[in-house]
C-alpha cells in the first residue's frame, strides 16, 4: 500500500519555482508549509539544511528528495516542486536537479521515514514517471500521478 496519498496535497505541489540554490529552495518550502504545519519557516529551512550537511539528498537523473525531522510535527508531510531552472544538488551523477520532493517527518519517525523515502526513490527512479512530472502543467494532475502510480 502506498504511503504517498497521505503525504501530498495539490496545494503542496509547486510548479516552475525560481530558486537559485538549495537554501533558496528550502526557504520557499519553509514559507509554503509553515502555516499549515504550525511550525516556523526558519525551523523547516534549518531542518532541511542540517540534513543536507550530512550528505547530498540528490539522487541523480535530475531528482532530489530533501528530508528533515521536525520536533512537534504530528505526521509526515510532503511538498513536490518542479524548478524553473535546474540547480546543483551534489547528486552522484553531477546532474543538476529540477524535480524535488521534500519530506518532513516527526522527530521520532525512523521506520516510517525510511519506508516513505524508499517509495519515493522507487517512483522517482522511473523515467516514464519523471517524464510525466516534467510535462504536466497542473498540480491536481501531478497529485493524481503520485496517488495512482503503481506501488
Automatic annotation (TrEMBL):
The keyword Cytoplasm does not apply. PANTHER family: NITROGEN REGULATORY PROTEIN, PTS SYSTEM FRUCTOSE-LIKE EIIA COMPONENT-RELATED. It holds the Pfam family PTS_EIIA_2. Residues 6-149 form the PTS EIIA type-2 domain. The keyword Transport applies. The lineage of its organism: Bacteria, Pseudomonadati, Pseudomonadota, Betaproteobacteria, Burkholderiales. Gene3D superfamilies: Mannitol-specific EII, Chain A. InterPro entries: PTrfase/Anion_transptr (IPR016152), PTS_EIIA_type-2_dom (IPR002178), PTS_SugarTrans_NitroReg (IPR051541). Keywords: Sugar transport, Transport. This is PTS sugar transporter subunit IIA.
Amino acid at each position: 500500500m502506498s504511503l504517498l496519498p497521505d503525504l501530498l496535497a495539490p496545494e503542496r505541489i509547486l510548479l516552475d519555482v525560481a530558486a537559485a540554490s538549495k537554501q533558496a529552495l528550502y526557504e520557499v518550502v519553509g514559507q509554503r508549509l509553515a502555516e499549515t504545519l504550525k511550525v516556523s519557516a526558519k525551523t523547516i529551512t534549518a531542518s532541511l539544511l542540517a540534513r543536507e550537511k550530512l550528505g547530498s539528498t540528490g539522487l541523480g537523473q535530475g531528482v532530489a528528495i530533501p528530508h528533515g525531522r521536525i520536533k512537534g510535527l504530528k505526521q509526515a508531510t510532503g511538498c513536490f516542486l518542479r524548478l524553473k531552472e535546474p540547480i546543483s544538488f551534489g547528486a552522484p551523477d553531477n546532474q543538476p536537479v529540477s524535480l524535488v520532493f521534500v519530506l518532513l517527518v516527526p522527530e521520532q519517525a525512523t521506520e516510517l521515514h525510511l519506508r516513505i523515502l524508499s517509495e519515493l526513490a522507487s517512483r522517482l527512479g522511473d523515467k516514464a514517471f519523471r517524464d510525466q512530472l516534467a510535462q504536466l502543467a497542473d498540480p491536481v494532475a501531478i497529485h493524481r500521478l503520485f496517488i495512482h502510480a503503481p506501488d
